[in-house]
Write a structure and sequence with these properties.
This protein has about 270 residues and is an alpha+beta fold. It has nine helices and 14 strands. The strands form three sheets. Strands 3-4-5-6-7-8-9 form a seven-stranded mixed beta sheet, sandwiched between helices. A five-stranded mixed beta sheet has the order 11-10-12-14-13. Helix 2 packs antiparallel against helix 3 and helix 7 runs parallel beside helix 8. The protein is globular. This is inositol-phosphate phosphatase. It catalyses: a myo-inositol phosphate + H2O = myo-inositol + phosphate. Its EC number is 3.1.3.25. Pfam families: Inositol_P.
């Protein structure tokens, strides 16, 4: 069933992602009323009517495209944490972040995106990263490469001798312990900055515009699409215990993503304090 869907159903997924953004997200961009923005865990953890409506739209359309599939969406998991367990079940699962970069979306910044990935038994099979305000769609299918607006992209390797450009988990969303761990990247040869939309940071690595990422949180909806995109562009990733991050298990954190394997290993070892 999955192979058949991957062979023939992917254009329908792209259409569903674009339609959700066109109907539920873009009409609200720079048009949000105060009552349409809520806090979740705190003042920096925002959710809007666009997040909720887009996830509802995608949940209906994606499960219709692939009968028997489940959806693990950010807002559904916030409402019911047991939804996350679908990642460990046998059915195909759609991993959805309806508006990745909600803080930017609320501020009227176009650097937000919709993230969708299809996984089965922990393996990410296909992904879509759609930045509607930037008019960019990045796609990846396992074993078939990474593309932006239909053009193949490759991550390449950092320029020898240049500082590694690294986006790290934003301090607004990190604990004191995580801040101390990330501070290990404050060394000569590494130029670190806080990340924005995780999905767009992954895209920058896949394009070779950033060299690496260091993340301290495990939420599958932030990482699944980007991890496949970077892998298919030629990049690599590793948790601090030396094994790849997977969406269907508990992972040792933080984890590192790099344009190439050597870069991912370099950042991982710094995070370990090695």
């Amino acid at each position: 069933m999955i192979d058949e869907f991957l062979a023939h159903g992917l254009p329908d997924v792209e259409e569903a992602v674009r339609k959700a953004a066109a109907i539920e997200i873009m009409p609200r961009f720079r048009q949000l009323a105060e009552h349409e923005v809520d806090e979740k865990s705190g003042p920096h953890d925002l959710v809007t009517v666009a997040d909720r409506k887009a996830e509802e739209h995608l949940t209906a359309s994606l499960t219709r495209l692939l009968p028997g599939s489940a959806v693990v969406g950010e807002e559904a998991v916030h409402a019911d944490p047991t939804v996350y367990e679908a990642l460990r079940a046998d059915a195909p699962v759609w991993i959805v972040d309806p508006v990745d970069g909600t803080r930017q979306f609320v501020a009227g910044d176009p650097a937000f995106c919709t993230l969708v990935a299809l996984a089965h038994r922990g393996e990410i099979l296909a992904s879509w990263t759609f930045a509607p305000a930037l008019e960019e769609l990045a796609t990846a299918v396992r074993g078939q490469g990474a593309y932006v607006n239909g053009q193949r992209i490759r991550s390449g390797s950092p320029e020898p001798g240049a500082d590694l450009r690294v986006a790290i988990a934003h301090p607004l969303y990190t604990s004191d312990e995580n801040k101390r761990t990330l501070a290990r990247l404050d060394v000569p040869g590494v130029a670190a900055r806080p990340c924005g939309s995780a999905g767009l940071e992954y895209l920058k690595v896949a394009r070779g515009e950033m060299d690496a990422l260091a993340f301290t949180w495990p939420s599958a909806w932030d990482h699944a699409a980007g991890l496949l995109l970077v892998a298919e562009a030629g990049g690599a990733q590793s948790t601090v215990d030396g094994v790849p991050f997977r969406v269907d298990r508990d992972n040792a954190l933080p984890f590192a993503v790099g344009r190439d394997e050597a870069t991912a290993v370099r950042i991982r070892e710094l995070l370990r304090g090695a």
